[in-house]
Amino acid sequence: LDVATCINLHASILPKYRGASPIQSAVLAGEKQTGVTAMLMDAGLDTGDMLDFIYTPCESKMSSELFSELGELGGELIVKVLKNFENLKPQKQDDAQASHCKKISKSDGLFSFDEEAGQIYNKFRALTPWPGLYLASGLKILSLELSEKSGKSGEILSVEKDHVVVACKGGAVKIYELQEPSKKPTNAKAYINGKRLSVGDELK
User: Fold this and answer.
1) CATH 3.10.25.10 segments of the chain
2) Which of 4, 61, 90, 122 is buried most, with the most CB atoms less than 10 Å from its CB?
3) CA-CA distances (angstroms) from residue 109 to 5, 36, 100, 202?
């Protein structure tokens, strides 16, 4: 560091989400926007003085989409920073506003319909394709959207042509595609019919 200035890019708006999983963590938290921070490197973990930022909306995006988008935005940001480096004034991070995120593990994908519908949706967006969103039975949810319906958690509320609606705490979700352990993905309606489940039964 005494020989040359070292610049790092971090995929969050620091000091939020320092650590190993800033993109997934922002989506899990339901953030409306995220971005990339350019900073000077120091001895800490993502604690260096900040040089510049670039932002993007994220409240409806998948983390896989954001990985690609933030990679491109990071390229734009570093070019801008290098061109204007002599005119930039590094900003100290406010440690009181800092948050930290851990490395994502397979167990993070476990969920239940007793969770809030919005939380389940955010988990799906954040953790697809890996580790994915799955129930304790191992049943994996491959395609999911929010629904305006409500009912008892886990209850099948309706079976439509291309999806089923399942109640969660405070709402419901539309499930389009599922996958049982060691089996191929299947349409949610076909899965429900194959298990001889119907409206009012519990999906688990």
Assistant:
1) 106-194
2) 122
3) 39, 25, 19, 20
Region(s) of the chain under CATH 3.40.50.170:
7-101
Q: What is the rounded average pLDDT of the residues 3-32?
A: 94
- Is the model more confident about 5 or about 136? 136
Instruction: Dump pLDDT digits (tens) for 24-61.
Output: 999 999 999 999 999 999 999 999 999 999 999 999 99
CA angle, residues 87, 100, 113, in degrees to nearest 5: 130
Tally of CB atoms within 10 A around 107:
7
CATH architecture of 7-101: 3-Layer(aba) Sandwich (3.40)
DSSP symbol at 174:
E
CA 32-56-125 angle, to 5 degrees, is: 55
Provide the residue type at 32 as one letter. Answer: K
User: Averaged over 154-181, what is the pLDDT?
Assistant: 97
Strands 100-101 and 164-168: unpaired
Query: 0.85 exceeded by the pTM?
Result: yes
- Exposed/middle/buried for residue 119 (C-beta within 10 Å: 0-12, 13-18, 19+): middle
Q: What is the DSSP letter of 104?
A: P
φ and ψ at residue 5, rounded to 5 degrees: -75, 130
E-state strands within 4-131: 7-10, 18-19, 33-40, 50-57, 100-101
More reliable by pLDDT, 192 or 3: 192
